[in-house]
Amino acid sequence: MTVSADPDKASFKPAMLIYDTRYRSMTIQIFVLIAFIIFVFWLINNTITNLFELGKPIEFRFLSEPASYDINQRLIEYSSRDTHLRASFVGLLNTLVVAALGCITATVLGVFIGIGRLSKNWIVSKIMAVYVEVFRNVPVLLWILLAMAIMIESLPAPKAFRGDTATASMYLSDSVAFTNRGVYIPEPLFNNPIGDISLFGTSSMRFDVSLDLLVILIVFFGGIFTSFKIKKWADRTQNITGVRPTTWYLKALVILVPTLVLLWALGFYLGYAELKGFNFKGGTHLRNSLIALWIALSLYTAAFIAEIVRAGILAVSSGQNEAAASLGLRPGRIMSLVILPQALRVIVPPLISNYLNLTKNSSLAIAVGYMDVTGTLGGITLNQTGRELECILMLMLVYWILSLSISAVMNWYNNSVKLVER
Amino acid sequence: MKTSFVLSGVTIAGLAAGAAVAGTLDDVKARGTLNCGVSTGLTGFAAPNASGEWEGFDVTMCRAVAAAVLDDANAVQFVPTTGKTRFTALSSGEIDMLARNTTWTFSRDVDLKFEFVGVNYYDGQGFMVPADLGVSSAKELDGATVCIQTGTTTELNLADFFRSNNISYEPVPTETNAESQQQLLAGACDVFTTDASGLAATRATFESPGDWVVLPEIISKEPLGPLVRHGDNAWGDVVRWTLNALITAEELGVTSANMAEMASGTNNPEINRLMGTEGTLGEMLGLSADWAQKALSVGGNYGEVFEANIGEATPIGLARGLNAQWKDGGLIYSPPFR
Amino acid sequence: MSEHAFVRKEIVPEQTPPLSSIGIVGWLKANLFSSWLNVALTLLASSFILYVLSGVLPWTFQSIWHASSLTECREIAMATWGKTHGHACWAVINDRWVQLLFGFYPSHLYWRPIVALLLLIVALGPVLFSEAPRNLFYVTAAYPFLLPWLMWGGSLWVSVSVLLGFLVAYIVIKYMVEIFGQLLGVIAAVFAALFWWTFLGAIFSEIAISVLPLSLETVTSRSFGGFMLALLIGVVAIGCSLPIGIILALARQSDLLIVKAISIGFIEFIRGVPLITLLFVASTLLNIFLPPGSDFDIILRVIIMVTLFASAYMAEVIRGGLASLPRGQYEGADSLGLDYWQSQRLIIMPQALKVSIPPIVSTFISVLKDTTLVSIIGLMDPLGLSQGIRANAEWQGIYWELFAFIALLFFVVCYSMSRYSMYLERKLQTDHL
Fold first, then answer.
1. Looking at the predicted structure, is the pLDDT value of residue B258 above 70?
2. Considering only CB atoms, which chain A residues are within 8 Å of B87?
């Protein structure tokens, strides 16, 4: 910008708003702003007019009315007499569960496949390449439907476990059952539980936090924290004396013993699933809609993550590899100490967008009847109440907040691994 | 510069779709086609065949209206709708009528502001189980896994039924009927619940239908019928009386076979009024005098449409039951043509 | 001079490498059995492949191609192999493949989507392959106007009149800029084009139609379906999102605070929500947002929402392309005395767009894959049609065959495009070295 002289107030002419670069950007911006505001008002005005004609003014009262439908997977207590808001909340938690599970497995699988594609074994690298191409180039909705169909068709029905002529049996000394209704695994139970804390009273957001779980987590992470302290102490000792004290048994002791003692005190035992009546009873039931969605999203996203990991590893110059080898590091340690930390900087940003994609793709849950927030708030609630505008706006808001939080967390992590340039 | 896609698209859309300002009847006549909302695929009621033509019980209803109004049973633009999109499509004017096995309920009529013009199929929600499950009543289903299609009234009925009988169940929602069937066949659910007609249709296509029983309980009333928007009574009348014409024709014994003969004049004044040879009923609707003949020429009277699409001779094999004429002990009853 | 006992006078003949390191044996040793771990991996992987193939191959190839219903398929399978499971019933594909490709498009007009597809390939030629003759760019420029004409029918003059609107804008820019300066010139051009489209264009096309119709039979967009619909949504969305994406990307990079904020807000909002919610908006809300009485049909509404969706991603892709240009390019353009639009048009955009082509192709692939979601709101894309086909009494209960066919369709198209984009990426890399 040419700001050689202060603009002369007296000589200001309206034409300068257009021809003078000092003022022109201001003029453009004001016009854009005005146009934008007019556009938004136009939209709002249309909406209000149309809704008035339809006789459906915007209101959120329906959220406090009984939902009247049941949800099979609920992490919190819910019955068909609860409100639509509560049903949406149950759905939101289901979305979070499948997104979190999916991100974890997709990352593990993706790293494994990405490294596998660089394997020197021809057949392994080819299999991984085929995997990546097949999964990347077919729509994820098809994979979800296929995963569900395979779960249903290939696993035995619960009745196959019944009677003397049972054709299927449970695994791991009768603790795990794979059925086409889902997988039943043992659930942790306590003989003398401490109880729950109820949050948010009796509102639609009420939430019970298990104190048992809370205490166990606190003690466990306390143990891990202590073991870090022990490691620091060992480092210090090594720096001073040159001899590193053996600490692994100390670490195991501080992590395991308090946790085990606590579990014993709570009367911990595993509740096994048992075939009773039509279904397995007891245990934790991972429904096949959850598993199908989880597997399909993980496999699909893993194909993308694999490519990112491969690109990240290839981006680390081969000199790093050779230098590390010349220092006498073993291949495994080269990967974990030299290559991966450097590759991570290339990997993390695209990884974030894949996590976002996975979370957004989890909205396809309705295709297999998994009751996530799209299935409850944007599905049954929308259908039963006919409040499209309110439901869809809330749904978009939920996903938007979710995406923003994931980006925020991952960006924070990305900044912490970023190369600090000096 | 490629934005012209949208612009020229809009121009073309403007040619194709008229604005929903004037009366729907005038719109349909001006447009020359009837936009009719149907299901995305429900055996016997609406499904596209190999040459892309829609067929089924609900589809014939659309065609009958098109024939009555436009004198062309093929002047119908079928708009497949899902449970979610069907009401918006109707209220936004995208479709002129909805014939998609939709249950007539208070809230849909009053709150969503639709006008159900009649009932073309009396249905009720039932349960189907494998015979070897050894269940003879729905009340024995405590703890069972139940497959339901989402986006319908069935899931509400189901929740109410199990709750009022104080028994537990595990709902397995599915997006389409086909997925429910697949789960049921594989044993992933013990019970399949939907409208009784759907159960029969589903059972008929199984490899061995004898292995499946439909339980005696019918837990809901599902009067299914075509619907239009509130507030356009002229159009509502056209659809209502087209349906009634099909029903009355069966009652009076007018079939596609003897229609030409009946149209030349009979001793029964009501048949004459229906056929348009007496009175001005067609004119009152704003249609031609022989509108009912045209509607009947599509697939015959109500009974013939029923038999051709979902009746006992078809793979679906539904008995008339509640849907028999009132004279035969059913509920199908049309107000008189007078 | 020292004496040497032996000095070789001739060169030793080249020896063949040991048998174990060449040919098949050597290749096997190097690539499959180089260590015990590798041997284990090889065995594991090959048994996995064998297991998968032993399940899939008999199903795929011991199959039934001619039958009129699933029941008949089962009877044939029973008669031939003695069991009904484990044999594909491709008869359903044989019966319905045309429908899966074209939806409900009138069968005597199938040549139109085919011509549109061929023209698309020709139009993309000069963009995608630098060896293609440059003259083809005229086809590229005309294609956006030919496509709607071919697909929807009507008169060519409608498209021509839309095209003329751009011509009007161009002429106005050319002459007004000299008189009124850049900003006013552009504004005047926009208004002139709008004026043409709203008033003069209609008159022009009416007159032209009465002279020479050049009309094709009109096909309403509700008859669109099958893979054609997926491709159409994908192509139109990407085509329209390119200019919108460029504008958004420039806005996001600009110094104008408000413009920048609006652009960021739009991009981040669209990228933050799943496509399915945008499709819900298309299917239930878009008509509510527009003035009362306006009625786009569902396919146009879906195209609009998918275009908005793609624009946000396109903007990010182009922003990436802009960011990859070295600073010197901008400074060089400035030092030549070019103004903002000149430098964008002549220096920055040609380079940024060129490096953006591979990610644009990837965006297209992902948009094309995402078009399957329209089946959830009831459009008859291949997945939606498969529901309709299964609802027919003849094919009720068929499952895998339809999915396999649809997956294959998508795989072939997406895979070939991703190969192309990789080829291009490699080529662009060498270009820069």
1. yes
2. 386
